[in-house]
Amino acid sequence: MPRETPMLHAVAVGSVDDGKSTLIGRLLYETGNLTADEIAHVEEASRKRGRKGIDLALLTDGLRAEREQGITIDVAYRSFDAQGRRILLGDAPGHEQYTRNMVTAAAGADVAILLVDAKNGITSQTRRHLAICAMLGVKDVIACVNKIDLVDYDKGRFDEISDEVVAAAASVKGPRVTPIPLSALEGANLIERSERTPWYSGPTVLDALHDIDPPIAEDAFRMQVQWVTRYDEGGADVRALAGRISSGTVRVGDEVVALPSGATSTIARIDVLGEDRDSASAPLSVALHLSTDVDVSRGDVIAPATDQPVVATRVKATIAWLDENPLTTPARLEVRQSSRLVPAIVETLHERLQLDTMEHEPADALEVNDLGIATILLAQPLVVEPYAQNREMGAMVLVDPSTNRTVAAVMVTEVLPD
Amino acid sequence: MSTSTEITALDVLEAEAVHVIRECAAECQRPVLLFSGGKDSIVLAHLAVKAFAPAGLPFPLMHVDTGHNFPEVVEYRDWFATEIDERLIVASVEDSIAAGRVQDETGPRASRNRLQTTTLLDAIAEHQFDACFGGARRDEERARAKERFFSHRDMFGQWDPRNQRPEPWSIYNTKLRKGEHFRVFPISNWTEVDVWTYIDREGLSLPSIYFAHEREVFLRDGLFMAAHEVVERLPGEEIFTEVVRFRTVGDMTCTGALKSTASTVDEVLVETRASDVSERGASRADDRTSEAAMEDRKRGGYF
């Protein structure tokens, strides 16, 4: 049974100067999610920089360095309502050197708003962002052909770029594309349809954000235990398994298994933050009570006994390398998957992905912002599933224990035999 | 027992906050929850209680008391800690001044806002806290919109906004070196309206100054400031009585009130939704000093 997404995670991506921050500023402004003093502040900042009119980009480019350089360095998050639907929108940096922040912004997003400059057309950075979105499992892309006013609202130019984006998305087996002719600056087809594009009959950006329904995967139930709550109830020592449901639905009476131990039990009680319910679904935080006393601790995964994920010590994965120090193999690092942290060795680097062409090429190192495919050996068994099948169970980060930095985002593509 | 109901955006935000709180409690050695008695920290403390109930909190609350707080808020703070039966640590700016750690500002625009950073960092070092939960939200301010859930602070308490740890999905890298700590912001993605809606839904009580009341005030920079001995007035700043409420709660020296008759949570929600002024713009003199005022204070170890 399909469910409505109560909160849509969107990310704005595209090349630098394609107008992402302007789009966000304008969206917030037009939907009444910007107050008068915030606007006054942006007006003053615009004046100080000698900009003509109001530069809405200064609203989300909140860091000093960003304002000085006129670019987005890190992700800014803003929330707003699109005709009653809650949107959490991340503004991702467009510069290639900040691709790592773009990966962070797009991970977990349901929909991407991709900006393409109508004059310049799609760039290698557009392709990179599209490829990254595809790899991160972003299901929908609202492709805004922006600055359409600068090409005289020309239908031919719009069609040409739309076709290019659709083709680029298809080449990365990517997301569904909704192309929109847009002028973020003029507000054309943002909230209201523009009279200048009579040839366009599709949705505005706000309509698209309101209507797009990314399929909520009705995956099997999975929950990683974060914390074992212990308390005394009428002389009895009660243990409850606290965590956030990462996928599916759990019901009282369900037969479950705790992994990696493999111990089985039955769900006796579901406590949803103080309220007992007979069932609960992702992404709620809950505390589960089992009918029998089973040895379960932090990091263990609770799943249906009839539909268990696998336990693995070796996986093949797509790696987005985020650190300035390049990855060479073998690399001794740590894998963090939700609440588990285990030592790991990146054994073999199979290939690097050439993002603008999507070609795979042999490589012996991954530089910052590179994507590649590697085999990772885990010091302790982890409960995993391929990322395409279950996001939460297939997503990890790599941490370098010598610097404590988060050096890579990892998406499991295949579980390998030990 | 109720059957499962439709999940709302507020349910998702609540689940996310609880996830972050549990994660921090499990990963960090000595967390503490920064509790000012303001609405955001009240919501945060309530979420923390729910995250571990019926067991107690696995960490204490801490208030950095400047000595310039509203008496109603200090009273509420003590009542709240007793009510939830948890330990409250009070780190006092006045003690820092007495010990010669900081110099009190003087004059009509004197504020202890900057001084509390030293008191906070001293308290973190004294208690060896490695994580401080805070009720900051991304919609409050442009620099906060950029901040992670687990925001890393070096030995000097500094935030490095250009070099934040990537935080893809809901995976948090909680590794620290000795002397470093995290500021953890579980309600990052909440808006002011979310906070009030949640207060309404959960039936939380708040300090009385959040609701319309009669108060002796004077006007400064377009804000109604509380008339109180700790706030020195400039020539021409006349005291008068007005019906006001506070939209945020900080020091008396830098928090302004707005004219309002909203005396219930419902009425406040109506006003908040209709407001054309941001929360901080409406009440905080401390953010007006420069465009990057918040970023600069955060870099230096401020909340």
Write a compact overview of the structure shown.
The complex is a heterodimer of chains A (418) and B (303). Chain A has 418 residues and is of the alpha+beta class.
What key phrases describe this protein's structure?
heterodimer; A: 418 residues; alpha+beta; Rossmann fold; Elongation Factor Tu (Ef-tu), domain 3; six-stranded mixed β-sheet; six-stranded antiparallel barrel; 9 helices; 20% helix; 41% strand; globular; B: 303 residues; alpha/beta; four-stranded antiparallel beta barrel; 10 strands; 33% helix; 16% strand
Description:
The complex is a heterodimer of chains A (418) and B (303). Chain A is α+β, with helices and mostly antiparallel strands and 418 residues long. Chain A is 20% helix and 41% strand. Chain B has 303 residues and is of the alpha/beta class. In chain B, α1 (9-27) crosses α2. The model of chain B has no long low-confidence stretch (mean pLDDT 89).
Q: What is the count of structural domains of chain B?
A: 2
Described by the principal axes of the CA atoms, the overall outline of chain B is: globular
**Main pleated-sheet profile of chain B:** 6 strands, mixed
What proportion of the residues of chain B form beta strands (DSSP E)? Answer: 15-25%
In the sheet with the most strands of chain B, the strands line up as 3-2-1-4-6-5
Q: How many structural domains of chain A?
A: 3
Secondary structure: helix percent of chain A: 10-25%
Q: What fold name stands as the CATH topology of the largest domain in chain A? A: Rossmann fold
Number of helices of chain B: 9
Please specify the SSE layout and strand pairing.
The complex is a heterodimer of chains A (418) and B (303).
Chain A: E1 7-14, H1 20-30, H2 36-48, H3 57-60, H4 64-69, E2 76-82, E3 85-91, H5 99-106, E4 111-117, H6 124-135, E5 140-146, H7 155-171, E6 176-181, H8 205-211, E7 222-233, E8 236-247, E9 249-251, E10 255-259, E11 263-272, E12 275-277, E13 279-281, E14 285-290, E15 301-304, E16 310-321, E17 327-328, E18 331-337, E19 340-354, E20 359-361, E21 365-366, E22 371-384, H9 391-394, E23 395-400, E24 405-415
Parallel strand pairs in A: 1-3, 1-4, 4-5, 5-6
Antiparallel strand pairs in A: 2-3, 7-8, 7-15, 8-14, 9-13, 10-11, 10-15, 11-12, 11-14, 16-22, 16-24, 17-21, 18-19, 18-23, 19-20, 19-22, 23-24
Chain B: H1 9-27, E1 31-34, H2 39-52, E2 61-65, H3 71-84, E3 88-92, H4 93-98, H5 115-127, E4 131-133, E5 150-153, E6 181-184, H6 192-202, E7 213-220, E8 223-226, E9 240-246, E10 256-259, H7 265-274, H8 279-283, H9 293-299
Parallel strand pairs in B: 1-2, 1-4, 2-3, 4-6
Antiparallel strand pairs in B: 5-6, 7-8, 7-9, 8-10, 9-10
Helix pairs in contact in B: 1-2, 6-7
